[in-house]
Sequence to fold (303 residues):
Amino acid sequence: MSKFLRENVFNILIFLLLSIQAFMYYYDNRPSSKIFSQKSMSVENFSSIVLGKSGLTKIGSEKLNKIDEDNFFLQGKSYLENNEYKIYGEDISINLNEDISHSKKSVQVINSMGTLDAKGFRNIDSEGKIYFDGIVIFKSHD
Amino acid sequence: MVLLSLKVMIKVIFFIFSLFLYSNAYSESTVKAGDSLIWDSENQSYTATGSVEFSNDTFIAFSEKMIAKYVEQGGKELFTVVELFKNVRIELKDEIFQGDYAIYTRDDNTIKLTGDVSIQSPTRLLTGHELIADIDNNKRILNSANDESLVEVLLENNANN
Fold:
């Protein structure tokens, strides 16, 4: 047995190295289903209607990027409009599953009471609350 | 002919006057917040924090925090109650009210301040625990904290009030 091993040690070694290489080649070239499912999609000058807690909301942007099934990124000048508010901003992220939209860029909101300007917002539709960050100016018409 | 044109002119003037009255009835209120503002549509309120400024056609108010409640009337939303917290300062014509907490009620157009309250005007300084300012009737009621404490009044020599 030891004689056999001594005579074929190099053959066994070469065989093992080739097997490892074949194994690596196979896994390196195998198409990943994960990457495929996360493949993003983008549409320019997009507008659509989504159903949320505030009812039907019309959304639109210069460019829509679909991140996954629930998450969208409205790139460039974007808007969200429904019968409660009109939000005009830039680079707005939307999570349809959690009914949350947010942006860290300047935003203007118009509702039946007046007009609001802020540096960013976080809209939690399920709670009926919109949080505005930084200096906020709200002008209403009594 | 002259009478007819006069009647038309009166109607035009009345129409313009009505428009003026309508525009005044919906005068503007402004809320400024230094840190953040939350619009809570379920509880019908706005909560502002950080160097808050609230102004309407009657007064300007400053504080650290503000909660303004509103109601819907005829498709429009109106501020009904405005609460101000911490370092409250209200400027009403030539008077300055200061206190720890204030509540403005639109229905009776009154401001109630509590805490270390003061009223400052060009000719006098009044301090106490509670102030009720009736804006429509131009009345000010200043109360002390209890029977033992005092309302302090400082009058200038040339005071007319």
Notes: Helices of chain A lie at 2-29, 33-37. Chain A is about 25% helix and 55% strand. The two ends of chain A are 99 Å apart (CA to CA). The beta strands of chain A are 41-52, 55-66, 71-81, 85-95, 100-103, 107-111, 114-118, 120-124, 129-133, 136-141.
